[in-house]
Amino acid sequence: MTITPDEYRARILGDIEPMAAFPQPLMECLGLACAEDVHADVPLPGFDNSAMDGYAVRYAEVADASADRPVQLPVVGEIGAGQANLLALPPGAAAKIMTGAPLPTGADAVVPYEWTDRGVAQVRIEQQPDEGQHVRYAGEDVAVGDLVVAEGTVLVPRHVGLLACLGRARVAARPRPRVVVISTGSELREPGQPVGHDSIYDGNSFLLAAAARQAGAIAYRVGIVPDSPRDFLAALEDQLLRADLVITSGGVSMGDYDVVKEALAPRGVWFGPVAMQPGKPQGFGRVGTEQVPIFCLPGNPVSSFVSFENFVLPALRRLMGMRPEMRPSVTARLTHAVRSPKGRRQFLRGDYQLDASGAHAAVSPVGGPGSHLIGDLATANCLLVVPEDVTELEPGAEVDVLLLDGAF
Ligand code: AMP
Ligand code: MG
Question: Which of 35, 59, 88, 147 fits as disulfide partner to 109, beta carbons 3.0 to 4.6 Å?
């Protein structure tokens, strides 16, 4: 029985749990989902400090200072960033202070150099600061106890920087899944090796490993396994040790040499048609003692890519503790007519463009529907989605588009 892509994705996601989180060094956490609510243990700023190079003063003591009527104060010392040598400012005095240096108690404003004669023993102040001017107060940015990063946040450089400023060397985050990619096909050769008219280069293991890596996984490309169930099972067995998820390419349709299906269907992996084009033959299940999830994708390069986008990407995101959505989905007006088979959701390759105003989006089909057209796949910047019940769309029709890299 045929199932829809949405039903199939829901079935897969229902079977996949986020991986266990553990404390990881900050730099390893970039791009990972935070697995704790991080509350600040310390305030930011950590202490009252100067926002300028200048003089710490009591603002009331330099009232009405002007170029004509400057106020002269003795300078009792100098405080640099990282120095805590002058803890209190005596009344009737100023202290030289640098940006980031702790403000001595008693001081309530900083007069920048530009408003003074930069004196060393005495300073002439030619303008009165407001109360608190150029002072950065403890906790004005982040207070102790503030929630600074919520559980589930995907950590970007700004979060990494903030966590470091709060003194966190590690944070609980969900790890990157280790993804093993195996391509099958006796016709396949490694790039760099000679090919004849009986052989082709293995593109899919590169395509899929790159896609997995871009999704945040650690991808291991196993390379080529010939169309022999024994060789395939041996390669799979070898790889399961280091895999949180396995992707295979090829050997899942109705042919005589459909090695993946032949080897894994008897081992409980589900194989069946999904109502989509390309990507109709699919397989998903669990293998080995660790019951590692395995995705068995069809061998045509465009089919394997569309299958990855529809099913593997959401699963990887779920493993990583992220929302399992696919690519950003927008609508655009078709520039050319397209046809689509009845009863199957079609994913055509498209070129998505915004007009100069940025308000109107258009999408043109790129190449034909053939699932071997990897040249067109590479020049496209979106997948154009034609629903199951639609067989023809005219120019001007509004269609759903999944934006790929290069759409912006
Ligand atoms: P299969 O799903 O194994 O029947 O393969 C379908 C088509 O995709 C055939 O024309 C294969 O030669 C081609 N194909 C399979 N695997 C790859 C691969 N790794 N790279 C490029 N093309 C492939
Ligand atoms: Mg094959």
Answer: 59
Radius of gyration of the chain (CA): 31
CB atoms within 10 A of CB 6: 13
Separation of CA 130 and ligand 2 centre (Å): 77
Which two structure tokens, joined as six digits, stand for 122? 């005495």
For 287, list phi and psi in degrees, rounded to 5: -135, 155
pLDDT tens digits, residue range 26-58?
A: 999 999 999 999 999 999 999 999 999 999 999
Measured in angstroms, how far is the CA atom of residue 326 from the centroid of ligand 1? Answer: 25
The rounded distance, in Å, linking the Cα atoms of 297 and 181 is 11
Question: Is the torsion defined by CA of 156, 161, 162, 167 positive or negative?
Answer: positive
pLDDT of residue 243: 98
3-class SS of residue 159: helix
Residues contacting residue 295 through CB under 8 Å, at least 6 positions apart: 245, 246, 247, 248, 282, 283, 284, 307, 311, 312, 315
For ligand 1, atom 14, which residue shows the shortest CA distance? 299
